[in-house]
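Quick one, tokens below:
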């Protein structure tokens, strides 16, 4: 019975859907996490009768055929790069992007990677680094004796030393934009890598047209909506149960046939 295999593809698809929802809920408090959504497409069709072909010679073509769909498959797990809420932290090294753009950091082997999680800190050399110790790119070094660090909305970084009256500029933050943010490859640890699908990064300054502004002492929260996730979880669970019901009904129908042959 084809219905057994078709329903099984439906159960597999809903299992994937539930796993994506579970990952969203697990990251509800992850800084700048972007929720994901599973997308599905129908499988190929078995054609029993072709539409547009005359039934007999001289007759009109039949208006529609008989095409049996053979189930569903996962097509994509799409990241939804929607702005998350900004949460005040009071930490001068916490930076949130309000709008489009990505911080550039130097990951393992000095590979340029991208993040919106601006929970920076200083390393032993005074350089701004991520919570995993990756250097911000371009590098910014906070001089010794600094008593206050200020980052304005256009990404200029100032340091006030205890021996000076006026703060001095020590760096400029850059942001990178992509034509297709959904094409970025998630690496974990709030990091992403450019791909052929994302396109090459276009680097600009915060506050310029098309680029977000920097908010110091703020972090961007996850954009996961708990009410929406629970609603979609219930919907996925119901769809999984309906597919299981189809398998149960098909099994009972097969049992009826086998008992009738005895």
């Amino acid at each position: 019975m084809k219905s057994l295999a078709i329903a099984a593809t439906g159960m597999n698809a809903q299992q994937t859907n539930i796993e994506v929802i579970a990952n969203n809920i697990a990251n509800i408090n992850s800084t700048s996490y972007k929720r994901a959504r599973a997308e599905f497409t129908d499988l190929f069709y078995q054609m029993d009768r072709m539409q547009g072909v005359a039934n007999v010679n001289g007759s009109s073509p039949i208006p529609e055929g008989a095409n049996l769909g053979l189930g569903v498959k996962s097509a994509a797990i799409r990241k939804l790069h929607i702005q998350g809420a900004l949460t005040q932290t009071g930490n001068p090294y916490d930076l949130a992007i309000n709008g489009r753009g990505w911080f550039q950091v130097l990951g393992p082997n000095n590979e340029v990677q991208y993040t919106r999680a601006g929970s920076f800190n200083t390393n032993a050399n005074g350089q701004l680094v991520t919570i995993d110790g990756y250097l911000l790119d371009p590098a910014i070094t906070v001089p010794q004796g600094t008593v206050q660090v200020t980052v304005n909305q256009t990404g200029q970084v100032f340091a006030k030393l205890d021996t000076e009256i006026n703060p001095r500029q020590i760096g400029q933050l850059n942001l990178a934009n992509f034509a297709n943010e959904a094409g970025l490859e998630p690496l974990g640890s709030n990091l992403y890598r450019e791909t052929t699908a994302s396109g090459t990064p276009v680097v600009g300054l915060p506050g310029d047209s098309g680029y977000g502004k920097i908010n110091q002492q703020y972090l961007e929260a996850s954009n996961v909506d708990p009410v929406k996730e629970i609603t979609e979880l219930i919907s996925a669970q119901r769809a999984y149960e309906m597919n299981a019901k189809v398998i149960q009904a098909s099994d009972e129908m097969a049992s009826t046939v086998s008992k009738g042959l005895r």
